[in-house]
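**User:** Everyone, produce a chain:

**Assistant:**
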Amino acid sequence: MSLEVVKLEDKYLELRVKGETHTLFSPLVEYLSRDPDVEYVTFDVDHPLLENVTFRLKTKEGSPLDAVKRAVEAILSDLESLEKSLLA
């Protein structure tokens, strides 16, 4: 995966990511959409075979990087809970 920061401001983040598709960004956008500090979040895939994604995030409050960190931590927590319930 190759990541390029296109724009990073106080409340806005835009990334271009090569080597990823919906698999990574669909859950990330889902979790970010639940965050009350997020104004909007979206991603576009140029073409499924090229695996190029443009990711955009704008926050109402706080840093967009902090919002991404919270979302990733929530995803990991949910995956750990799922793993425990499957192995129990």
The chain is about 40% helix and 35% strand. Residues 2-87 form a domain with the Gyrase A; domain 2 fold (CATH 3.30.1360.10).
